[in-house]
């Protein structure tokens, strides 16, 4: 069965410094992985996704993540934090499915990112 | 593209009443939609998978008579919270999969959520 663990419940950085949000996954086959961001009282916005193409995935707003199979990790990074990056971030693994049926998403517990001025 | 809407965005109701939440895929067709519940400062919890033209599949521990799901068309799924009580107060989020997306990585498009408060 697939699972995902976000290693930090809360990360605090200063504006302009790098961001690292850690995620480890467990899957018996090649997984599909996503990072979503959620601002307060809002829905989820897709930042980026790994789908077995390039291992370094670039997303929106300067975020990127690297898929490392040997470490079963998919950490999210950004070179320079902005105040608007303060939000909740979810690492997600997709359940394998055939065609267009099934396909649940399994969510990590979330990491709250705070950005100090 | 790939926009999902929810209506209403927030609702306040009295205990014992029923509330219906709509989830619509605006620019694509969705044979499968999902309903999630999120408590404050917590992750999303999948409640059920809604399949167009058939019964929803509920996750363990979710009362299907309490949370009625109807997926009557390829662009609309509804969640009805019946006889709502204060403990049903939560943030409900739906998502949808594109009918024609045959890729295996199961991308879902999320709605903006509905805040339900039961007094």
Features:
heterodimer, A: 117 residues, mainly beta, six-stranded mixed sheet, four-stranded antiparallel sheet, 0% helix, B: 119 residues, seven-stranded mixed sheet, globular
Task: Walk me through the structure.
The complex is a heterodimer of chains A (117) and B (119). With 117 residues, chain A is mainly beta. Chain A has strands at residues 3-6, 10-14, 19-21, 23-26, 32-38, 44-50, 56-58, 64-68, 73-78, 87-94, 105-107, 111-116. Chain A is globular and about 40 Å long. The relative contact order of chain A is 0.32. The model of chain A has no long low-confidence stretch (mean pLDDT 90). With 119 residues, chain B is mainly beta. Helix content of chain B is 0%, strand content 50%. Chain B has strands spanning 4-7, 10-13, 19-25, 32-38, 44-51, 57-58, 67-73, 76-81, 90-97, 109-110, 114-118. The model of chain B has no long low-confidence stretch (mean pLDDT 91). The chains are: A mainly beta (117), B mainly beta (119). Chain A binds chain B through residues 32, 34, 36, 41-46, 49, 51, 90, 94-105, 107-110, 112, and chain B through 4, 6, 31-32, 34, 41-44, 46, 49, 91, 93, 95, 97, 99-108, 110-113, 115.
List segments of chain A where confidence is low: pLDDT < 50 over at least 5 consecutive residues.
none
The string of secondary-structure elements of chain B, in order, is: EEEEEEEEEEE
Q: What is the alpha-carbon Rg of chain B in Å?
A: 14 Å
Q: State the low-pLDDT regions of chain B, or none.
A: none
**Which oligomeric form is depicted?**
heterodimer
How helix-rich are the residues of chain A, as a percent range?
under 10%
Proportion of beta-strand residues of chain B: over 45%
């Amino acid at each position: 069965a697939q699972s995902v663990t976000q290693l930090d419940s809360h990360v605090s950085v200063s504006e302009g410094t790098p961001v690292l949000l850690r995620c480890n996954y467990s899957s018996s086959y090649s997984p599909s992985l996503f990072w979503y961001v959620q601002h307060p009282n809002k829905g989820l916005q897709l930042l980026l996704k790994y789908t077995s193409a390039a291992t370094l995935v670039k997303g929106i707003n300067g975020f990127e993540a690297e898929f490392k199979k040997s470490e079963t990790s998919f950490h999210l990074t950004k070179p320079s934090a902005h105040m608007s990056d303060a939000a909740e971030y979810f690492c997600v693994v997709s359940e394998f499915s055939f065609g267009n049926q099934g396909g649940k998403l399994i969510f990590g517990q979330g990491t709250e990112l705070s950005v100090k001025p | 593209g790939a926009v999902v809407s929810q209506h209403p965005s927030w609702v306040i109701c009295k205990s014992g009443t029923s509330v219906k939440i709509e989830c619509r895929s605006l620019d694509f067709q969705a044979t499968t939609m999902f309903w999630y519940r999120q408590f404050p400062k917590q992750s999303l919890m999948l409640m059920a998978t809604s399949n167009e033209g058939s019964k929803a599949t509920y996750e363990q521990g979710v009362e299907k008579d309490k949370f009625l799901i109807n997926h009557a068309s390829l662009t609309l799924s509804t969640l009805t919270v019946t006889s709502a009580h204060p403990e049903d107060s939560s943030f409900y989020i739906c998502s949808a999969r594109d009918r024609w997306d045959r890729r295996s990585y199961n991308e879902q498009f999320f709605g903006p959520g509905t805040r339900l408060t039961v007094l």
